Amino acid sequence: MRTNFERAEKVAGTSPLWLPRLIAFVTLTLVVILAPGIVQTQVVEEAELKDFCGTYREFAEKNPDKLLARDGDCGTFGGCDVPANRDAWIPDANTPWQTFRVRFHILREDDGTNPACTQAQVDDNMATMNAAYAALNIQFIHTTEFNDDSEYRSMSEAEKPAMKAAHADDPANQCNVYVTTVESGFSWGTFPWDADALAANGGIVMNASHFGFGDDVLVHEMGHCLGLLHTQRGVSESPDAFPDCDWGCYEHAGSNSDVTGDYCSDTPPTPTNNSCNEPAGNDPCPGDVPWAPTWPENYMGYGGPGCWNAFSTQQMGRIHCWVDAEMTSWLVATPIAQCQNVEVSADGNCEAQASVDDGSYHPGGVGITLTQIPAGPYSLGVTNVTLVVTDDNGLADSCEATVTVIDDTDPVAQCPADITVGNDLDECSAVVNFAIAATDNCPGVAVAAVPPSGSTFGVGTTGVTVTATDGSGNTDVCTFDVTVLDTQAPEITCPPDYVFECDNVGSFGTPTATDNCDPNPTITLLTRDSIPGDCPQEYQIVLTYQAEDDAGNTDQCVQTVSVQDTTPPVITCPDPDSLDVIFINPNQAQVFFEVTATDNCDDDPDITSDSLSGAIWEIGDHTVTAIADDGCGNADTCSFSFHLVYLDIKPNSCPNPLNVKPYTSDSKGGAEFALGGSPEANPSLDEYAARGGFPVAILGTDQFDVRDLEPETITINGVSPIRWSYEDVATPAFDVDEYCGCTEDRGDGFDDLTLRFDMASIVASLGVVADGDVIQLIITGDHIDHDPFFGGDCVLIRGKKTLASDGQPEGDNASAETGLIGANPNPFNPITTLSFSLSSATQYRLTVYNIAGQVVRSFGGTGQPGLNSVVWDASHNASGVYFYRLETNNFSASKKMILMK
């Protein structure tokens, strides 16, 4: 008898830049029927309503009259939970590979739009899962179906059975995986002991938020389908209904911490802990002692994506046991490769084609493709060949054999034509040199003449015999005659070989020649061959010259000219004061720079550095090293340094308000403030002159002494401080990752550099701003080592509020129904959707600004009541932080987004 029930786990966490991850569910069922050969477990004599390892509470409450198979203190689902059975299945080097079929169902709208994921995401998740299960000798093949069904494109938990019934495809022979959006945000897998494991209501439901690139939640859910429980079972899943902590199956600290719960003694208990660190605090029972070491990285633990990386060996055995007991119908047969050694004769190219296949086949009759590696043709001798047999499902087997290529073809001896030479002076003979050769289908043929070249031949005709012998002992013979006449050939002399630098190639010289008869032999350049060197700037020129006398006798020589590059390029690093620095939050900044280089021969030497321009740096001291390489092994190096400091405007004040008095208003009800110029050009600046100093602090830490800065060099927006001092005013908030995050903590025992700037000068430097604008101010100056430093913080522009026609103050809270929802996705590349809601049909303006406050895109028109959105395509914009602001006649709000290319 099988009865199923559900349980859930959820890891909570929030962040302004990423959504909560890992929400996974499994459907559990209990089976007491054992596969053949599996040891029978103990049986409880009477029903007990208690928490069997936490997960079973609902099962026990619904089925108090059912008996559970037991192993020690913990309830079991079948024989594979018995250690003796489980451990017999632990895979080793001899374990055959098993391949499972997986069928993906990607839900989308009735009209085919809005798919829950892309095919690329399916392939990425499959690659991740295959990599995770490779250690078990398990792989998966998959097919994908896009289901146009708006009813289940976004659904509740209660709709799971109906959705599966509508789209399940051959569940008895493949694992059906459904990807959609579940309102609860959870994912589910079905255990193999569940009555529905091989039926339409089985398989896996993946929430689309768990199915992105690089996610491994599918690995976790497939673990449930193949028989794995959670390692935190008995801890996070133990109910509050049993406060006495005395049930026997509870995982706890101490000597028994690794023998109960998930039936795997090498998998320590994992309390609810998704930080990928050991849990803090004590186990409440027994004894209130610290938790024993846990394993949050286990795929079935609570560490979550980005933490999971391994299965235990006993989990591997449990999977193979449950697969053999329940899941064999999901397995795919593989082809069989059969090889034989072969011997063939070499062809005219001293190679041959050959097949080592000896009847490879597929036991299931599936079509197969044979591939030999290497493919051939094969050279003389013995070649080791691997035959790969791949079936139509992409599964493969291989075997190895040898191909032996033999040479049984005779060479061809090549004799010169009959030779007629002139006699040596005053001699009736001549020393005659001649060239002999041979061709063969294989290299390495030897050729010899009798008498040999260089012998003295008497006047008259002498026969010469030439014999060619190849490396395999095959031979051939030819003959020719040598006739000695009275003649001589000239002698040619080439210029010496030269070596030049690539930027200073000189003259190659001129060859000379002499002859016994002709005082001026004709010299000809026969060939000029250019041979590339190891790099583009280096090469070699081979010159072949010939001298010919009046009788037609010739001589040749060869000159080699080498061109090399031994001069390194000259690299130039940027002046640190010229760096462009943009802070993305108080603790991090993007630094932009340019490194250049020149070379004597390479117009574009390769420049590399240990950091890219635009990279994000943390607060602290930094050095960038760059190398220029001309491709010929010559290089030059330079470096530059800079410092990033923690800047806090108006210490202990968040969000650093800067109150500005408006003097103009636009027609849309929002106030703008033209603050540039002088007090004479803008009378409102008199107010800021009266306010006095604008406070700023550079915060010191145990790693950074603010006294290492040169206060005289410091400016903000070109404005120098009017005074400064050293005092402990605030503590840096290094855990803040908001763009305009700030600290409200007081002193931390380390001196801070506090500065006062003229308020009117700071305000005048801002230019035109508007109420609610967030402006980043950058502080710059010199460190005592003369390297520059940079710091960034924000101020919030606040203007004098006005009243709307109904007498209520205008601003962010003027309408409870109008709101700026956000950007999705965020971060994005290169397109994102900006969403907002309106309480009624009204004119709106939505403006996108860069980090310098410049408008890069503006949207507007008449919006409709309810949800509205616009799409921003930033294909032609640079990576970085951007702000977007929504304005209506009675509402104004801004948010941040990040473009990451």
Q: How would you portray this structure in words?
A:
This protein is mostly beta strands and 901 residues long. It has 7 domains: 3-329, 3-Layer(aba) Sandwich (Collagenase (Catalytic Domain)), CATH 3.40.390.10; 342-406, no CATH class; 412-484, Immunoglobulin-like; 491-564, Immunoglobulins (Immunoglobulin-like, Sandwich), CATH 2.60.40; 570-644; 646-799, no CATH class; 819-899, Immunoglobulin-like (Sandwich). It contains 8 helices and 59 strands. Strands 1, 2, 6, 7, 8, 9, 10 and 11 form an 8-stranded mixed sheet that branches. Strands 38, 40, 41, 43, 47, 51 and 52 form a 7-stranded mixed sheet that branches. Strands 14-19-18-16 form a 4-stranded mixed sheet, with no helix packed on it. A hairpin with a 2-residue loop joins strand 4 and strand 5 (74-75). The chain starts with a strand and ends with a strand. Mean pLDDT is 80; it is low at 1-73, 233-261, 662-683 and 800-816.
